[in-house]
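Subgroup meeting minutes
Present: P.N., E.W., G.H.
Scribe: E.W.

1. P.N. recapped why we're keeping a running log of single-chain structure predictions: easier to compare across weeks, and new members can see raw inputs and outputs side by side.
2. G.H. added today's entry (397 aa).
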Amino acid sequence: MFLAHLLSLLGVVIAEISLTVLVYRATGSALMSALTFALGFLPYALGGTLLAPLADRHPARRVLVACDLLCAGCAAAMVWPGTPVAGILVLRCAMAFVAPLFQGARSASLADILGTGEAFVLGRSLLRMVSQGAQLAGFGLGGLLLTFLAPHGAIALTAAGFLASALLLRLGTRDRPARAATAGAGAGGSALDGLRAVFGDRRLRVLTLLCWLPPAFAVVPEALLTPYAHDIGAGTATLGVLMCALPVGAVAGELWAGSALTPRTRSRITAPLAAVAFLPLLVYAVRPGAPVLLGALLLSGLTHAHTVGLDRMYVDAVPDALRGRAMTLLSTGLMTLQGVGMALAGAAAEFLPAHVVVTGAAVLGTAVVLLLLSGLRATAPGASGAPRALRAPRAEE
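Output recorded in log:
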């Protein structure tokens, strides 16, 4: 599962950079090149919403292998001689369309393999750290590959990576029955049933929003780092270091939480770390130089350690029959809202200086997190007025 995750992720990242170069060389249009990158985010909401029930309705291994094979086929079709730019964009959309289903099924099957206790929490944290590192390494590797290979050659390698991932999953994981089959009729209902089940329970709704909304504010400094660096006179080398600060801090924070803290301590620091996550970004208000900004971004990234405890709360709140759909919706909302956050940050920066936009995002993000933490505390097990445990919807519902 780990190796397949790494191969798929590297394939996606290398494909993204290679496709932008390929489309730009074919069209000479910066807009078309940027659109190719944006198409990695835009189909998420639709694909995650429509395909979420499949994560519980079919065996996880079958879903994962099918998604990898589809992505491999799309990548191979992109490099087929004579494929037009419009066809490449459609194929890119198809890959992004199935991405949330793959991520949701993988997260749910991770719980099948490791259980829903601490092993699942640490395993999910490890995959998240690998995702951060692989994105940094993937862009560098993609750039290196493009110095030796044409974009078509680099994309062909991603197709091979997806095929290798499918082979690993098919031969290296056990074939387990679909969760809907083991939970009874009605557990594998429609996408609307999944949304209703997730958002119909107050605690699960608050946990979902805690996973969705803070990242939408957290992407603002990354989205505006280039114009901010230009404003303070930082060069491209400094910009590259600053771009790495948040993901490096996030990896370090999760590594510390997962390896040095006990489960009880991780649970205790979840709310405090989430509450202060955006406070280091308030330094933007004084328009700091690169060294101070680097420290602030690293500190903000370190607070990402709270997601380890948040994962445990989330998996404890979701019944087995809904796990696949819930995880798919979780990744769908996360990616979609991050894209929305980037777009809104860019729009705001058209009218306000970058440091003002980031400061405002930090203030709003802190207010949103505190409000959600208040709701989470009210729904804690044993709290007065806490809701009943969530259950899967019956067929007649």
